[in-house]
Specification:
The longest helix is centred in the first third of the chain and has 32 residues. The chain is built from twelve helices and five strands. It folds into two domains: 68 residues; 165 residues, 3-Layer(aba) Sandwich (Glutaredoxin), CATH 3.40.30. Helix 6 packs parallel to helix 12, helix 7 runs antiparallel to helix 8 and helix 7 crosses helix 10. It starts with 5 loop residues before the first helix and ends with a helix. 64% of the residues lie in helices and 10% in strands. It has 255 residues and is α+β, with helices and mostly antiparallel strands. A five-stranded mixed sheet has the order 1-3-2-4-5, sandwiched between helices. The N terminus is likely disordered.
């Protein structure tokens, strides 16, 4: 026997639809408070808020269902990413800067932000590990600029990729992390000059590589990454996200 009568099922569906409208309403008011204040009928606003207050469980259920759906989508993207990294790594590496042995059995992908202080600190440990296990590892650098909180993250990323076009990414990369407190156009140009880059090409390439930064960022978002630095390893012994503090132990155990 179905304990949900047609009327109750209809009511539940109606409440779910209304909840979605309520959530949209709240999103609009949070995002555009000035416009919302003038465009939304106060009486309607009160009615919507009253419905939310009387049916909080429906709102919670809708949010939980959405979260489960998003998590499932993220997990699917991660599974596909790791599968591609294992079976066809070139599709993942693409034109990204790499260092270490090109024939290494271990691939380490770093998602990083040039303005992130944690990324700056991580470079010291990472460089030491690459010096120690360089013949076993290939590092792939992916940009994940947290531009909402780091205003120079995207400009720095485009500058580094423009240097990559002239074969000087890692030198530029190191200079940026060594001068995180000076990030800005004067520094980007100064580093380019010190590395003897073709400045005309450098300026042109900075505009062209913006799409590559956006692609890296979209990839990071699809994998559900929320912070930097973030590392993903692929080897016969390990696969998936890894903490920098775990790398030495993992790499030391490789055949």
């Amino acid at each position: 026997m179905n304990i949900f009568s047609p009327s109750l099922v209809w009511l539940r569906q109606w409440l779910r639809t209304l909840t979605a409208i309520c959530l949209l309403f709240l999103l609009i008011t949070w995002t555009f408070p000035a416009q919302a204040a003038t465009n939304i009928d106060p009486k309607l606003e009160q009615q919507v808020l009253e419905i939310i207050r009387k049916n909080p469980q429906v709102v919670i259920e809708s949010i939980q269902a959405y979260q489960r759906q998003q998590q499932k989508k993220i997990q699917s993207a991660r599974d596909k990413f790791l599968q591609d990294l294992k079976n066809n790594p070139k599709t993942i590496i693409g034109t990204s800067p790499t260092t270490g042995s090109p024939t290494a059995k271990v691939l380490l992908i770093e998602f990083s932000d040039f303005q992130c202080p944690y990324c700056g600190e991580a470079q010291k440990t990472l460089k030491a590990l690459l010096n120690k296990y360089g013949n076993k590892v290939q590092l792939i650098y992916k940009n994940f600029p947290l531009s909402a909180i780091h205003k120079q993250a995207i400009p720095a990323a485009t500058a580094a990729l423009a240097a990559h076009k002239q074969g000087k990414f890692w030198e530029y990369h190191d200079a940026l992390f060594a001068n995180q407190n000076k990030l800005g156009e004067p520094l980007y140009l100064d580093i380019a000059k010190k590395l003897n880059l073709d400045l005309t090409q450098f300026k042109r390439d900075r505009k062209l590589v913006a799409k590559e930064v956006a692609q890296d960022t979209a990839l990071a978002r699809s994998l559900g990454l929320s912070g930097t630095p973030f590392f993903i390893i692929q080897s016969e012994e390990a696969s998936g996200a890894v903490q920098l503090s775990e790398l030495d132990k993992i790499l030391s155990g490789l055949k």
